[in-house]
Design a protein that fits this description.
The chain has 408 residues and is of the alpha/beta class. The chain folds into four domains: 171 residues, MoaB/Mog-like domain (Molybdenum Cofactor Biosythetic Enzyme, Chain A, 3-Layer(aba) Sandwich); 53 residues, Molybdopterin biosynthesis moea protein, domain 2 (Alpha-Beta Complex), CATH 3.90.105; 77 residues, Beta Complex (Molybdopterin biosynthesis moeA protein, domain 3), CATH 2.170.190.11; 68 residues, MoeA, C-terminal, domain IV (Beta-clip), CATH 2.40.340. 19% of the residues lie in helices and 28% in strands.
């Protein structure tokens, strides 16, 4: 395994990471509806019955048969089976959501009806039917959602409406984070030649937003700056995690041990160095277990903004693949200001969205080691190699997942 890499085009790197994830996606498992939110459908969601399964009243009022006035002969509430209306001139009181009795010709709204002293009901039905017909929303066996759909509360609700108790979903990828660089401070104010680690606290949050599971015990470091310590830390993390994100050590300096450690573990590169700025250098490697199961290491640079760009460029598409989801296409936005190119590299420029104007405007404080600009941004304007963006141009935009559970 060579540690030397020719920078890969950014779009190609994203696609390679995604395909590696798709190829390694595990089989589905069945979970309860309460556990399904945030997962991905492993099978199509099909209607188990017609929706609605029976004629359903849309109003509170009267179900009537024949010409009025009508004599009430009963009541039907939601959750009960309605007896047929067999005689003209009769009606039953009906509640919203209740089953419309067989034989009913129309529904009359309670606020548009009158009941006289003898108890007879008069009123005029509206011209449009006031009930939902069986199969109006879906017919039995109809595919409602395809495999690969991200499960959110609306999907859970639809499944419940259909009568599902469980859903077949993809296993949620598990992640771990290794912090390299024993010069880093894990608490207190930076100074005297030492900087505070900002990646250990933030990378787990990004990974969760992209659908990975990990807890506080899955963040380790700083790992000592020796090859043996790096190999041991990686081997331990890979025993349980599908994806291990490392921070720092992606170059070839005297204490950069990631490449030799990957070689010692028999890893193979999926992507080794990406032609993107900021974010250089980054990598994605695959370690295959004896049973054939693939696990991955995403090497993030030590500079904080570069590390986040590596995460969104390689880890995010990998996780989309492991979830069995489609890799989202980049939406188009209007550049709110000029954005320079970076020669033969893709430029990911931190930008804030203005939802009223539909523009994405670059922010300040965007050096590789800075996080102030990232904290004010919604994502990145993408300026591809050999181009630049001028204010008013339509440009691709790579959004950050700014809220927990947001789809990648």
């Amino acid at each position: 395994m060579s540690a030397e890499g020719i920078p890969v085009d950014w779009d190609k790197a994203r696609a390679s990471a995604y395909e590696a994830g798709r190829a390694a996606a595990g089989p589905g498992e069945r979970v309860s509806l309460a556990e399904a939110d945030g997962r991905t459908l492993a099978e199509p969601l099909c209607a188990l019955t017609d929706l609605p399964a029976f004629p359903t009243s849309s109003i509170d009022g009267w179900a009537v048969r024949g010409p009025g006035p009508w004599r009430p002969v009963g009541r039907v509430l939601a959750g009960h089976t309605a007896a047929p209306l067999t005689d003209d001139g009769t009606c039953v009181e009906i509640a919203t959501g209740a089953m419309v009795p067989p034989g009913a010709a129309a529904l009359v709204r309670v606020e548009e009806s009158v009941r006289d002293a003898e108890g007879l009901v008069t009123g005029t039905p509206r011209s449009a039917p006031e009930w939902r017909l069986p199969g109006e929303e879906a017919t039995r066996g109809e595919q409602l959602l395809s495999a690969g759909t991200a499960v959110d509360p609306a999907v859970v609700g639809l499944a419940a409406t259909c009568g599902y108790e469980t859903l077949a979903v993809r296993r949620a990828p598990r992640a771990a984070v290794l912090i390299f660089g024993d010069e880093l401070l894990t608490g207190g104010v930076p100074g005297a030649g030492r900087v505070r680690d900002s990646l250990g606290p933030q990378v787990p949050g990004w990974l969760r937003r992209y659908g990975a599971t990990l807890g506080p015990a899955d963040v380790t470091g700083p790992v000592r700056d020796t090859l043996d310590a790096h190999v041991d830390a990686l081997r331990h993390a890979l025993a349980d995690a599908d994806l291990v994100c490392t921070t720092g050590g992606t170059m070839h300096g005297p204490v950069d041990h990631l490449h030799p450690a990957l070689a010692a573990l028999g890893a193979e590169y999926v992507v080794n160095t990406v032609a993107v700025r900021p974010g250089f250098p980054m990598l994605l490697a695959r370690v295959t277990d004896p049973d054939g199961r693939a696990r991955f290491v995403a090497g993030l640079p030590g500079n904080p903004q570069s590390a986040v760009i590596a995460l969104v460029s390689l880890a995010a598409p990998l996780l989309a693949g492991l979830h069995g989801r489609e890799l989202p296409e980049l939406p188009q936005v209007t550049a709110g200001a000029d954005v320079p190119g970076r020669g033969g590299f893709t430029h990911l420029a931190l930008a804030a969205l203005d939802p009223h104007r539909g523009t994405a405007t670059p922010v300040g404080h965007v050096g590789s080691a800075m996080l102030r600009g990232l904290a004010r941004s919604h994502g990145f304007v993408v300026v591809r190699p050999g181009t630049r963006a001028t204010a008013g141009d339509r440009v691709p935009f790579l959004p950050l997942p700014l809220h927990p559970g947001e789809r990648p």
